[in-house]
Amino acid sequence: MSDTEHNVLGGELQPCSDSHETGFLRDNHCRHLGRDPGRHEICAVMTQDFLEYSREQGNDLITPQPELDFPGLHPGDRWCVCLPRWIEAREAGNAPPVVLEATSEGVLDELTVDELREYAAADDE
């Protein structure tokens, strides 16, 4: 059995961001980990709508928190988003684009590849 984690397309899981330390392990990978109750498994490209929606739900990703070494996010940044929050945002019409190559195959227990493809980020994002 291989230790390689896979993305929703069946390939090797790619890093989500090269500019922010994201993911549950802060290793820039949106991994499926049993010890991550938030399920930070979707690599998403931040949009202003999603950032504002997330803040309204009590998770402020905009405001820098230097004490946590968190610079704050801006539209266009890539970030490992919690699976339940992404689903919630989709239902509210605020789901951010998804980087399929950097999204854990673990999300396929809640979403289909076709559903995710509908929100696939453009290659240049």
Automatic annotation (TrEMBL):
Alphabetical list of Gene3D superfamilies matching this protein: Protein of unknown function DUF2237 (3.30.56.110)
Cross-referenced InterPro entries: DUF2237
Family annotation (PANTHER family): SLR1628 PROTEIN
UniProt protein name: DUF2237 domain-containing protein
Source organism: Halonotius aquaticus
